Structure formats: C-alpha cells, structure tokens
Amino acid sequence: MNTKKLQDIPYSVLDLATVVEGQTPANSFRHSLDLARKVEELGYKRYWLAEHHNMPSVASSATSVLIGFIAGGTRTIRVGSGGIMLPNHAPLIVAEQFGTLASLYPDRIDLGLGRAPGTDQLTAMAIRGENMHGAHHFPTDIKRLQQFFSEDNFDSKVRAIPGEGLDIPIWVLGSSTDSARVAAAMGLPYAFASHFAPTYFMEAIKLYRENFQPSKDLQEPYVLACVNVIAADTDSEAERLSTSIKQLFMGIVTGRRSLLQPPVDNMEDIWNIYEEQAVNQMLTYSFVGGPEKLRSEVLSFVEKTGVNEIMATSHIFDHQARLHSYEIFSEVFS
After folding, report:
1. Residue 241, H or E segment
2. Residue numbers of the domain that contains 152
3. Which InterPro entries match (predicted)?
4. How many domains does one find in the chain?
5. What are the backbone angles phi and psi of residue 75, rounded to the nearest 5°?
6. What whole-number distance in Å separates Cα of residue 157 and Cα of residue 235?
C-alpha cells in the first residue's frame, strides 16, 4: 500500500485552450489566462499547454506562443508544454523558442516532449514533410536538445541563442510503454496521458520505475499522471457537466469532431452502446463528482499508483463552472 498523503502531492493543470460552441479561439485564450491566474492563487504548481493540430475544439496549436502569453500574465506558476510534439519541429528551433521563454520568465518554464504528431496522419505530413519518420529519432532529438541547452555547446558550429546554458527542465510525455523506456533510460521525469490513453498507464509507470537510470537532472523516478476532472458542489451537477467531455470524446470515436458542446440531461439520446463503451474506456481515469467523492477517489488513485504529481484537465462548457471545478479540486489536497 502506498503511504503518500494528498497534502504531499503537487497538483497542476493541462489546458488545450478548448473552443466551446458559440465562441472563438480568442475567447479561449482570454479564458485560459483567467484560469491560469485563478489556479496560481489556488496553489497549483504548473500550467501546461498541449500541441494539437487540425482539431476544431483545440486552439493551443502554436503552443510556445501561448506559453509566453500565459507566463506573461502570471507571476509564480510554472508554465510549459504538455507537450511539444518534438518530431514536428527541428530541435534547434525548440531550443531557441524555449530559450527565449526561459530568458523572459526565469525558473518558470517546463519543456514537456512527446513523439506523437498530435494530429491525424494527413496533417502530420503537412507539418513534417520529409520528416514523416521523425518519431524514430525521438531519443536522439532529445539528446540534441540537451546539447543545445548545455554550457558545453559554446564552441559548437551550431548554437541555440538564447537557450544555451539555461536550466530548462525536460519531461518525457507518453501514452505507451515506448515513452516509459525513453524516460527511464535518460533519467527524466515522466508524464503519462492517462486522461485519454489509459490502457498502458499502470504497465508504463511500472516499467519506468523499474528501469530508471539516475541522471544529473533527476536522482529518482518522478511520475506525473494527467487525469480528467469535473468537479461541482454536488455529484449530480458534476455528472451533468461531464456530458460535455463525453460528447467531445464521442466526436473522437466517431470522427465527427466539433466544438465543445453544452451539457445535456441525458446521454442516452445521443450515443449508442458501442460509442458509450469506447468513450468510457478512454475516460477511465476521470474524477467526476462533488468534494467528498473527489477526495475519496483521488486518494484511492494515489494509493494505487504512487504518482508524484497529478495534472488535471477539465473540459467544462461554462467558464465559471470550470473555474469552480479547479477550486474544488485544489481543496482535495488541503
């Protein structure tokens, strides 16, 4: 049995700058900044933004630009990527962008790296061009990034200015055992996308811990789990709010993607049994409920997994209800 107490667990935010029905990305960005300021007050440790492309409901495609906007509008919370999809970019460009961010906002920038495209194959081809097999170079590209950030790179013919000599924490993101092996071998912290890819979560974090090699960056394995959180004053209100994310994931399952929809009273009118099963499987690691239910379920999750940090993502249609959800979630850890 794991003995971690909830008070000892840092809690953080993953934001996709979700676009809700009837609004625009401009609204989403203002809401993201409003949320970042709110969670900073509530004691959240970090605020990460995710790189996705060609998705109507996700406006965080220019991730490093949005990180600068959020970091510039907050004071203390760490801001970073959850993640930058590294095969979409040349490591030098990532080093320069995050070197710029870390120069503007010292000791506040995290660089989470993923190897998936963050999109469909056709869009990935439009982004990557000749680099379509870039995922195979993921460990090598991380090492190149580390070299660009190192002080030892000062006499290289290719340098990251700014970026060189800056201490920017690198995280490996993943949704499978492949990423766990990379993070373990390189001695880097590991963030798992259990909020949409729960299947290999327990296997991957076990593999990561068993194979972890200490590095100058990290002496012991560190696991961050991203989960869905829909909190409200009552269990029934939280369940109703959760129908928005269920509709969003149903769009992923069926290929009929749309903007985030308002909650409904009954999902039975919307999905069939197969869609329901597929969505509920993807949402395995979701915490939906009022304060007491949330506290009990989160404690059970921490005891079962031994995670070092929990990152919450909350697809909630109403902005005020979303702010309130993060407020309730923070109280779980107090």
Report:
1. helix 235-241
2. 6-332
3. Bact_Lucif_Oxidored (IPR050766), CmoO-like (IPR019949), Luciferase-like_dom (IPR011251), Luciferase-like_sf (IPR036661)
4. 1
5. -120, -40
6. 59
- Reading the block at residue 203, the tokens are 């296997």
With 90 as the cut, is the pLDDT of residue 116 above it?
A: no
Give residue 97's identity as a one-letter amino acid code.
Q
DSSP 8-state symbol, 242:
T
Q: How far apart are CA 325 and CA 290, in angstroms?
A: 9
287-326 pLDDT, tens digit per residue, is: 999 999 999 999 999 999 999 999 999 999 999 999 999 9
Tell me which of 120 and 264 has the higher pLDDT: 264
Provide the pLDDT for residue 113.
97
Position 5 scores a pLDDT of 85
Quote the pLDDT of residue 119: 62
The answer to the question of residue 29 being in a domain is yes
| Chain centroid, CA 199 distance in Å | 17
- 93: tokens are 């460009």
CATH number of residue 317's parent domain: 3.20.20.30
Reduced to 3 states (helix: H, G, I; strand: E, B; else coil), residue 7 is helix
Within 163-249, strands assigned E span: 170-174, 190-192, 223-231
Where does 171-272 have alpha helices with state H? 177-186, 201-211, 235-241, 243-254
The answer to whether residue 187 sits within a structural domain is: yes
Residue 1 lies in a domain: no
What are the structure tokens assigned to 144, written together? 């190149």
